[in-house]
Amino acid sequence: xxxxxxxxxxxxxxxxxxxxxxxxxxxxxxxxxxxxxxxxxxxxxxxxxxxxxxxxxxxxxxxxxxxxxxxxxxxxxxxxxxxxxxxxxxxxxxxxxxxxxxxxxxxxxxxx
Length: 112
Hints:
By secondary structure, the chain is α/β, with parallel strands linked by helices. Helices cover 16% and strands 29% of the residues.
């Protein structure tokens, strides 16, 4: 699944609001915090039928369980993201330093 790792400040910086649930918070960003994820609406609809009850459920991403905390609108784009990149989820950056304003890394799994 294509996704991004972002600090909580990114959402404030680009002015996005969740469709359901919440976005990544400063608490989610702390090292050792529970793993959380925000899904894009298209993924939420396709995998979970648009169920609001998915908020709070755990899903497996890259071999680790993450709690779904929110749903992003499909028109959500991260800086420098091509519209066709297929970004489907965002997880917290969990930085060891609190000195950064915001961070973003986009990842795409390698085939095979």
